[in-house]
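Escalation from tier 1.

The customer reports that the assembly of two entities below gives different structure tokens on two consecutive runs. Tier 1 could not reproduce it. I'm attaching the input and our single run for tier 2 to review.
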Amino acid sequence: MILRALVLRPLLREKMRTALTILGIAVGVAVIVAIELSNQSAMRAFSESVDAVAGRANYTIVSEGGSIDESALLRLQPLWDEGARFAPVIDVEGVVEPSQIPVRLLGVDLMSDLHFRDYRYAQIEAERGADVSSAQATESGRDVRSPQRQLELFQPDTAIIPTSFAREQHLHLRSPITLNILGTRRTLIVRGILEARGPATAFNGAIVVCDIAVAQESFGMQGRLSRVDLLLPNDALLKNVGRVLQPGQRVERPSRRNERVSKMLRAFRVNLFALAGVALLVGMFLVYNTVLISILRRRKDVGVLKTLGAAPRQIFLAFAAEGLLFGVVGAVLGIAMGNAIAFGILKLIGRTINALYVTSRPEAIALTPSIIALGVAVGVILSFVSALQPSLEAAHVPPNAMIRPGLQQRISRDRERRLAVIAVACFVAGALVSQLPPWNGIAVAGYVAVLLVVAGFSLLAPSIVRLTASAFAPLMRALFGIVGQLAASSLPASLRRTAVASAALSLATGMMVAVALMVGSFRETVRIWVDQTISSDLWLRPSQGLSNSGAALFPPEIADDLAKVPFIAAIDRVRGREVLYGDDLVSVGSGDFARVADFGDLPMVKPRSSRAALLDAEARNGVVVSESFSL
Amino acid sequence: MRIRLDHVTHTYAGSDEAAAVQVLEDVSLDIQSGDFAVLRGASGSGKSTILNLIGAVDRPTSGRVFLGDVETSALDESRLTLLRRKSIGFVFQQFNLIPTLTVFENVAFPLSLAKAPDIPARVISMLERIGLAQRAKHYPSELSGGEMQRVAIGRAVIHRPPLIIADEPTGNLDSKSGANVLELIRTFHDAEKPTIVMATHSDAAAAFGDYTISVADGKAWR
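Tier 1 run:
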């Protein structure tokens, strides 16, 4: 009955305040859930694609240089008798011309690949040279599974595509498909259409399979392989494999790539979560304020109930339950909102991940039990924690509280001074903590420092409100007369309420300003960086697809041809790709240092002169590294 | 329940802006079990403070307070809570009903705290005794002052406490409603013989008690 008297009925009576508090929690939870959903979706899409392409391979040989000489196969040959199976793979990104749709080219040796991946055909060209217009030229998937029939497919211009991709691109058997891979354009003919299983599901079906020889010859990769997939019956064979590896090559599990990508995405996720954390902090202030106001408004009732014999524990549990109730309802609403928001931001996050990290086409949102648990835990725990202090205070309301009901809204000068001292301590601690190094590559200390600054300003809120109210009192009286004066004096008179509300409002406004400044600063930094570093009038790229930017190449003769154009003063040939450095993927770029020294203005930390640094690097066969890489 | 105050002094500590105020000075009282005692005095004389000390909602600055054989001024908060719950009924000048509970729930509250059996039957019976059975589902804001005070009396006596504290029970009522309320209190006293201590400044109200204790300038005497 205490819960009904102090919490449930008042919440129903004060619907607007209840709704706003629940909304505060729900927004915080929704942001967390939406970020996690979108991240998981993007990561799952990538991971499933890697797994689908890897097939049954339990190991894979990769090279730090990006490609492997196909002579590796000859060295692996003796291991065949020991049960090892291996398949050469060309796995590169490109685009379909002229639509510029990003696509993955998988070049495989069908004979050895049968051990690794299942290709199930939905449609296949019936006979070599059959009439395209004949509807009878196709056979059902069940009839075309014999290896012999599949081998017949692989002609020098054969492309196999998944059903979904064929449907999206309006391709049929015998349709020509033009691919631009590594800057080389080649038209192949669709001779088979795969059912949506195995490798055909990778990258949402945006994949083209062809014979490895076709891939090598058509796209300038003669003698090279992206990797060699291995199927080892036992790990003891790893030693034997290790013996035949060339320098720069290594064996790893296919899942290792997922781990690397996951590690790469971690900082991105942490940043997003930090923003969501601030939203939740605002929600916590709201819950604290709501429960506090509940207690202040019902202080007299609490006093009456205690006079009648209600125990402090019962009063505490009632108000703590109010916090819990806000948390549960806010979390449930937040999860539903987060699910809806995730649909909206999925493309945004997917695009960022595509542009900055890996090729991945995020799939549908999947609200898993773990995400629901995360949302509920975040909402409920934070609401409960926010309600704890005011609930404890309510438990200690004396039974005679109805005698002097209004007094507890004040904050004494002594307490205000104590809060100010703690605030200064928070600022000092924040400054010291911010000097700590990152933990596991994440600036944990930075986040803690920000939290301490927020805590400091929140603790200063009573003093700020009191001083601001005093400063504006004459103006308020001049403008609004006695009403204005009353308004100005009522703020310091109920500081416990007004200070928390002010802190919440300041935090929310501060977050908006900070995010706007941060985004603006990023854009400005990029603009300045582009202005300073790219001084060319024209910047040519082989394709427009973002996903292809790391892989596409111009044929060398294009630059030679351009050099002959009379009005072009200088050409800088630039090439970039990602390579493994230790266990991290890093971007390596190459260009003509002398050209950059002449025309560019690279902002340098050490030495300050970019010209000197670049010429020195060129003379000594050196490299220039970014400041973050050097750290 | 016998009540004794033994050389009690009480001072209210001041806040930032107010100085401490001494309201009782060396007060000793002895009220026998089953008495209907009336505290009389002007506003601010210390009547409500004496009631708060007797009702175990406040502690004396010095001196001792006994309810029966128990020295309440020496009990910890949890024991005081149990004592108030089981042994004391309160009637206030401002009624102090819980605005979010219905008449039925307000009257049932002490029984609910004590986890008593047959709560609905006992509450309905009490509402019939105070003449508010038809108002069971109403909220306090829907009642007149006299009705609210009758609900408060029903809440104060439903668990049959041996002590009832009444602080100016007619202070906010017209004379007719006030007389009805005092009649109700007297009826309960005659029927169940609890000790009643009532503060009032009204001659008419004082006439309902067995005797009067005067309170003035921090002192109390019979």
